[in-house]
Write a structure and sequence with these properties.
Elements lengths: L6 H11 L8 E5 L14 E5 H14 L3 H18 L6 H18 L15 H12 L5 H16 L3 H12 L12 H14 L14 E3 L4 E3 L2 H8 L3 H9 L6 E3 L2
Antiparallel strand pairs: 1-2, 3-4, 3-5
Helix pairs in contact: 1-2, 2-3, 3-4, 9-10
C-alpha cells in the first residue's frame, strides 16, 4: 500500500509544475520517491531545479510520519545539498543532515554494515547493478556547462554575507590548521615517511597484496602498484585492465 503524501508537499509539487526554470540545471524527481513505493512512470516524474529538488525532500522529511521515510528523505536532501552546494550549506551542516538521517533509519532497521561485527557485503546482483550504472554514466560537455552556469548564477544571486562564507569555505579558513605551519621536525618526518613509502614499491609488503603477471613477458610483480610503476601505467588503469577479461595481456598471479 502506497503512503499518503502530505498536503503541503502536494501543494509544493503543483506549484513547481507551472514553474519555468529557463537555463537552470534541473533534475528529474520522483513525486512518490522510489524507496516509498514510487515507480518510473511519467506521471510520477517531474523536472525540478536543484533548489526545488532539495526542498521537495526536505518537506517530505518534515511531514512524513514514518521513520524510514523521514530518514530516506533527509539523506536525499543531504546528498543534494552536499553534491550541488544547495543554499550554500557548509560541510558540517551537510554532515549533520546525514547524521540525523542515519539516526532516524537505525531506530527501526538493522545497520547495513556494522564494521567488524556483523559485516555484510553486496550481493552479486547488486554489484552488477552498480557496475552497469557506472558504465552507462556519460558526462557530456553540455551537462558540464549546465552545471557550471548553474553555479555561476547561484553565486551571482548570493548575498554579500553568503558570498563571504562561500569564499572562506573554498579558501580553507574553516580548516583548524589554516594559517599554521609544520615544525621543521615534523616536515622531516613527513619527508622520510614519503621516501620510505617509495622504497621497493612498499605495497608488495602488504600481506593482502595480490601478485600480478605480464603474460607477454612472464614477469611477476609483487602488487598492482609495482606493476603500474614499472610499466608507466596509471594504477587505476592497471586495475581496470586486470579485471577486464577481454584484455589478455595482464592477469593476477595465483
Amino acid at each position: 500500500m502506497k503512503p499518503n503524501l502530505p498536503k503541503v508537499y502536494i501543494d509544493f509539487i503543483e506549484q513547481c509544475k507551472i514553474k519555468e526554470y529557463g537555463e537552470l540545471f534541473t533534475h528529474k524527481h520522483h513525486i512518490l520517491p522510489k524507496f516509498m513505493g514510487g515507480n518510473n512512470d511519467d506521471d510520477n516524474l517531474i523536472v525540478l531545479s536543484i533548489e526545488d529538488h532539495f526542498l521537495a525532500h526536505k518537506i517530505l522529511a518534515e511531514h512524513c510520519d514514518n521513520d524510514e521515510y523521514i530518514a530516506g528523505n533527509k539523506m536525499a536532501a543531504a546528498y543534494i545539498a552536499g553534491r550541488y552546494k544547495t543554499y550554500n550549506l557548509t560541510k558540517l551542516e551537510v554532515a549533520n543532515l546525514i547524521r540525523e538521517a542515519k539516526k532516524e533509519y537505525y531506530k527501526n532497521n538493522e545497520v547495513w554494515n556494522k564494521g567488524k561485527k556483523g559485516l555484510q557485503f553486496h550481493t552479486e546482483e547488486s554489484k552488477l547493478k552498480i557496475s552497469k550504472s557506472l558504465k552507462n554514466r556519460v558526462w557530456t560537455d553540455e551537462m558540464r556547462n549546465k552545471i557550471s552556469e548553474a553555479g555561476k548564477l547561484r553565486f551571482k544571486n548570493m548575498t554579500e554575507e553568503d558570498r563571504q562564507k562561500y569564499s572562506e569555505s573554498l579558501s580553507g579558513k574553516n580548516n583548524p590548521f589554516y594559517g599554521k605551519k609544520h615544525s621543521k621536525e615534523t616536515i622531516e618526518k613527513i619527508k622520510q615517511k614519503r621516501k620510505n613509502r617509495n622504497i621497493d614499491f612498499k605495497g608488495n609488503k602488504n600481506p593482502a597484496a595480490r601478485k600480478c603477471i605480464d603474460l607477454d613477458t612472464g614477469i611477476i610483480y609483487g602488487c598492482i602498484k609495482e606493476m603500474a610503476n614499472v610499466l608507466n601505467i596509471p594504477r587505476t588503469t592497471m586495475q581496470r585492465w586486470l579485471k577486464n577479461e577481454k584484455i589478455k595481456k595482464y592477469s593476477y598471479y595465483e
